[in-house]
Design brief:
By secondary structure, the chain is α+β, with helices and mostly antiparallel strands. It has six domains: 155 residues, no CATH class; 133 residues, no CATH class; 206 residues, no CATH class; 181 residues, no CATH class; 128 residues, no CATH class; 72 residues. The protein contains 29 helices and 35 strands. Strands 3, 4, 26, 27, 28, 29 and 30 form a seven-stranded mixed β-sheet that branches. Strands 6-7-10-11-12 form a five-stranded antiparallel β-sheet, covered by helices on one side. Strands 19, 20, 21, 24 and 25 form a five-stranded antiparallel β-sheet that branches. A hairpin with a 2-residue loop joins strand 34 and strand 35.
């Protein structure tokens, strides 16, 4: 074995330097790793830029980006410079010779160790603090933009008489600057002290003076800067009292000055400001006096004053002046809080009127007729009937509806009607075979609108569809039906390339299409493909043959997500809703501007205030809040998202809102004027639910205008819990076309009830005109019930309903077998001094796994009815029949036909229908299912026979009857048993799930 230089203990291996080839390989791998990491960071930036450019909001991206970069560098450099300069200065002021002591000898080792690396160490320290400070400052981009672009409110606070913009836009920025100054002073002080100690300027155990004169002067100046900043903080704290939140036992959450603030804290802050200024001057004076004696005395005096003047004195004032006569002392400040809060939340113009709570009309026939015209009572609960839409109109498993449908208004024969509406969106969980191509190339979009009348059901309890089938047809006319952007569309899709997409399927097979819109980002560039492959973690995007010329990638596809991205300064309402506008499906999104800097206005937490039984069951309905705790809110923007192109448009809705004007200055040309809203779009805009939830929560306390009543708490209300929901969450507000007392016509409204705090009787009925474009839009009305009369609230009405023996027995029968009973929205309608309660009752069970409307509960003036239809229930409650009531839906007789085969089949259909209805009344679901099967068979025979007759007659058959004969279901509704089987609940081949 060759000698390797071993010693007596054995062979010794000499490790040499790596070969040139190895070094080159390692260097290459290192460079590639750096490039890979750089490209990963670049991919996120590049894809964001491409997305903003594709939606034509690149100015939002660039403005935000440059603001963040500017703040990062400016404040990062300032912090690095401050800390670095003080380290350099402390090193420069070091003593020429260190004392001969064990302490200094020990430090000599450290000084010698870092001596060769002093510059690198200084650079590392300053870079680290600069990066941290810059990253923190870049997060304040909203604060900076609001400060530099702020516009006046033209409203002054009652204490300091400053414009509200000072508190909303200026004060937050000043507080950030102050916080940054404190951080710079403290870090500089720590860095300078450590440097002085390391180089002997400060000594702990060495004999002689503990600090050199140079170190004393340097550190005292830094302490003087800190104390001077504290003086500024005391001065700003004076103004901060106007927006300070505190716990006030008389009212709970409180914002603004109270008696103790105005008469103790305010003068205390002024005195402490003066003491801090004097103390800072004493610290600066050590540059000449070279002694700590006076500054230390001044600092001690400031601390003692902060304890006595800033803490003890206000406590004494509160204990001995305020508490013995609290209402008299606090009343002037409560009045300021009342006014500011009502102004900040847009409830200052609320109309409060007394309401009897019981009818004085003796003529029951007159009351019965009034019940038909006072409201378009909605029996289709959009939060329950989604499974029914799913079963009857899903058509294919890869389509789906949201769990909560929406309520809108559409015109039919010149009259507005409340409509329950949902989109047939893509449901990837239902596609036949899931793989990358199917998920992202083939199944890319939903198809069509499904809508039904809100006020009625057919004879079997199904929705009366006004837009139905696939492709959709009905009352809405022609429109672009493909839905590439929707609430359920959360995955990306690649469209427009060589791979065809499934448009929809019918009896003739699959219909394919290729996306023709300009939305999304082109993948023709290799750089774009590589960036998205990295950003989405999908390497197939790089090399897939399914991507080619014309391929575009669509993502960020939910309406709320798109609006939030293009307007990151807005708070987004939890409920985006679709509407057919000018031949297009448009998602309408309400957006808010908020601030928590409105003086004297009490704060509220948006996440808590907007929560109800619907958000508890569906988190997607929750508000998207940029600033969760606010004390000012305006529905300043109405946004639309095109369901086909994804185009986002922002419209200025509140033309007076100074917060919106500020953001429009910061992001010019992003918000269109209110005049740009077309009449067709205006017809579908409405008052937003989340804003109304916030306002109703504030109105539980702020409906009173008298300070004494407010302080006593005797008029505090609460939003009742949803009596139909076991979650214990608040009842949601309901959209309803109704006529308020004193009004001549119905208006589309958003309504809610109020109960006394801790009780279940009714205190008030609150509504807001939700019909955009009308003179009364946004007007909140409160019908206040008398305190001396007990009027049942929603919970009591539900309890009485559940405890009524005859009704309980009917419910027991409806629950026969494996059926479930579901209660719909409990609607409250003011009627002739009293309150009419209406609640639809649905049954889900047997062979039908979706809810059908079976009964209607009506309560008025202590009389309760539980009948098959609303008309029957009203007749029973008022003991009179309507003189204007139209026939109940779904009771039409079968159409006649000259074809004897068709006649026989229709007769069998009618017989099966009658048998089904009889079985339903008895709760015999087995017999009901058999009757439904017979009904389907009879209708199928009638359809086949009619089709043959039509063909023999030259093709003028079922399609031309348009729902009048036995052909396709007619426009304006889901057919009754006398119509087509295409909407029969047991006919799943034609209208159920695939």
């Amino acid at each position: 074995m060759p000698d390797r230089g071993g010693g007596p203990t054995g062979p010794r291996i000499r490790v040499g330097r790596p070969s040139r080839r190895v070094r080159t390989l390692l260097m290459t791998l290192g460079v590639l790793a750096v490039l890979a990491m750089s490209f990963v960071m670049f991919a996120g930036f590049w894809t964001d830029w491409l997305w903003y450019r594709s939606v034509h909001y690149s100015s939002v991206f660039t403005t935000t980006l440059w603001t963040k970069i500017g703040l990062f560098f400016v404040f990062g450099l300032l912090m690095a410079a401050a800390v670095g300069f003080n380290i350099w200065l402390a090193h420069r002021l070091r003593p020429p010779l260190s004392a001969m002591s064990m302490e200094q000898q020990s430090l000599d080792r450290y000084r010698m160790g870092i001596a060769p690396y002093k510059r690198w160490l200084l650079l590392a320290i300053t870079s680290l603090v600069g990066l941290i400070a810059g990253a923190s400052a870049s997060g304040q981009w909203r604060t900076w933009l609001m400060w530099v672009n702020g516009v006046p409110f033209h409203q002054k606070d009652p204490q300091f008489h400053l414009d509200v913009s000072f508190y909303a836009f200026d004060l937050p920025w000043y507080r950030f600057l102050l916080g940054f100054g404190f951080a710079a002073a403290v870090l500089s002080l720590i860095a300078a002290a450590l440097t002085h100690y390391l180089y002997g300027g400060l000594r702990i155990t060495s004999p002689g003076a503990r600090a050199t004169a140079a170190a004393t002067g340097h550190l005292s100046v830094l302490l003087g800067v800190f104390v001077a900043l504290k003086a500024v903080a005391y001065w700003l704290d004076r103004y901060g009292l106007a927006v300070k939140s505190s716990d006030f036992k008389a009212t709970g959450n409180w914002t603004g000055l109270r008696y103790v603030d105005a008469n103790a804290y305010l003068p205390a802050k002024t005195i402490l400001f003066c003491i801090a200024v004097i103390c800072a001057l004493l610290f600066f004076a050590t540059l000449w006096r070279r002694t700590w004696q006076l500054p230390v005395i001044g600092f001690g005096l400031m601390v003692l004053s902060a304890v006595l003047i800033g803490g003890l004195y206000p406590a004494i004032v509160q204990k001995f002046q305020v508490e013995p006569n609290e209402q008299a002392k606090e009343a002037p400040y409560v009045e300021k809080n009342l006014k500011a809060t009502r102004d900040a939340y847009g409830i200052a113009g609320t109309d409060v009127q007394d309401y009897a709570g019981a009818s004085d009309t003796k003529d029951k026939a007159e009351l019965r007729d009034d019940a038909d015209t006072v409201a378009s009572i909605r029996l289709m609960d959009p939060n329950i009937v989604s499974p029914t839409f799913q079963q009857l109109q899903q058509v294919r498993n890869y389509y789906g509806f949201p769990s909560n449908l929406d309520v809108d208004r559409y015109t039919k024969d010149g009259k507005d009607q409340d409509t329950v509406i949902g989109l047939r969106e893509l449901n990837l969980a239902g596609i036949p075979k899931s793989n990358w191509i199917n998920d992202h190339f083939r199944y890319t979009h939903g198809y069509g609108v499904v809508a039904s009348k809100g006020t009625t059901a057919d004879s079997e309890g199904r929705p009366v569809f006004t837009e139905y089938d696939l492709p959709s047809k009905g009352d809405l006319g022609a429109y672009q039906q493909q839905i590439y952007y929707g609430e359920k569309t959360t995955q990306y899709s690649i469209v427009g390339g060589p791979q065809k997409e499934i448009d929809y399927s019918d009896d003739s097979g699959e219909k394919t299409t290729s996306y023709k819109g300009k939305s999304g980002i082109s993948l023709s560039s290799p750089v774009n493909r590589a960036a998205y492959a990295v950003a989405f973690g999908e390497p197939q995007i790089m090399y897939s043959g399914a991507i080619g010329e014309g391929s575009r990638i669509l993502y960020n596809r939910t309406p709320k997500e798109r609006v939030e991205a293009v307007a990151p300064w807005l708070t987004i309402d939890g409920d985006a809703y679709p509407a057919v506008v000018d031949g297009k499906i448009q998602w309408i999104v309400d957006a808010y501007t908020t601030t928590n800097g409105y003086p004297y206005a009490s704060r509220t937490t948006l996440g808590d205030t907007t929560a109800d039984s619907l958000t508890a069951a569906n988190n997607q309905r929750a508000v998207v809040a940029q600033q969760n705790q606010v004390n000012y809110i305006r529905n300043s923007v109405k946004a639309t998202v095109d369901a086909y192109t994804g185009d986002v448009k922002l419209y200025q809705w509140d033309t007076k809102d100074p917060v919106l004007k500020t953001w429009m200055k910061a992001f010019p040309n992003t918000v269109k004027s209110k005049d740009s809203i077309s009449p067709a779009l205006m017809a579908h805009l409405r008052y937003p639910q989340d804003l109304f939830k916030v306002q109703r929560e504030l109105l539980t306390r702020y409906h009173v205008k008298d300070a004494q009543t407010f302080l006593s708490g005797s008029e505090v209300w609460q939003v009742p819990d949803d009596p139909t929901n076991k979650s214990g969450s608040a009842v949601p507000p309901y959209y309803l076309s109704m006529k308020l007392p004193g009004k001549s016509s119905q208006a589309f409204s958003l309504t809610t009830t109020m109960t006394p705090n801790g009780r279940d009787n009714l205190s008030a009925f609150v509504s807001v005109n939700a019909e955009a474009g009308t003179p009364g839009y946004g007007k909140i009305s409160i019908l206040k019930l008398p305190t001396g009369r007990t009027v049942d609230g929603p919970k009591r009405v539900q309890s009485q309903f559940n405890s009524e023996p005859s009704i309980a027995e009917s419910i027991r029968l409806l629950r026969g077998g494996d059926s479930e009973v579901e209660y719909g929205n409990l609607l409250t309608v003011p009627l002739d001094g009293g309150l009419l309660y209406v609640e639809p009752v649905y049954v889900r069970g047997g062979d039908l796994k979706y809810p059908l409307l079976r009964k209607v509960l009506v309560t008025y003036g202590g009389n309760t009815a539980f009948e098959d239809t609303l008309g029957q229930a009203l007749n029973k409650v008022f003991e009179a029949e309507s003189s204007t009531e139209p026939p109940d839906e779904g009771t039409t007789k079968p159409p006649t036909s000259s074809n004897p085969t068709v006649q026989a089949a229709l007769a069998d259909a009618q017989k099966a229908f009658d048998q089904g209805q009889e079985a339903l009344k008895k709760g015999d679901w087995k017999a009901y299912g058999e009757a439904q099967k017979d009904l389907e068979d009879a209708l199928k025979r009638a359809e086949d026979a009619q089709a043959k007759a039509d063909k023999a007659a030259g093709g003028s058959g079922a399609d031309k009857t348009d729902g009048k004969g036995t052909g396709k279901s007619g426009t304006g509704g889901s057919p009754s048993p006398s119509s087509s089987p295409s909407s029969s609940p047991s006919s799943e081949k034609s209208s159920g799930s695939s």
